[in-house]
């Protein structure tokens, strides 16, 4: 693959990373909204466990989105410096 082909692939990967980061951010938001709708009058230890799991999933989504944004930035920096 030529240098131009590698750079084009890097740009495509950066675009894909950005798109996936947006999806993960939306999923994190939607998880919280769905949990709030599903459990408005629910109390007790099972609710606490549910809330903890939702928060953990949201955290994974947010962290994944942040990592993808870093990857996108680094790929575009690499392309710009090539």
Mean pLDDT across every amino acid position: 92
- Provide the succession of SSEs: HH
The total strand number stands at: 0
- Low-confidence parts lasting 5 or more residues at pLDDT below 50? none
Structural class designation: mainly alpha
| Number of structural domains | 1
Let me know the largest β-sheet: none
Q: Choose one word for the global shape.
A: rod-shaped
Helical percent range? over 70%
Content of β-strand: under 5%
**What is the gyration radius calculated from CA atoms?**
18 Å
Distance between the termini: 15 Å
SSE topology sketch:
Blueprint: H1 3-38, H2 45-81
Give an account of the 3D structure.
The chain has 82 residues and is mainly alpha-helical. The chain has one domain (3-81). It has helices at residues 3-38, 45-81. It is rod-shaped, with a radius of gyration of 18 Å. The model has no long low-confidence stretch (mean pLDDT 92).
In brief, what are we looking at here?
The protein is an all-alpha fold and 82 residues long.
Task: Offer a few descriptive terms.
82 residues; single chain; 89% helix; mainly alpha; 0% strand; rod-shaped
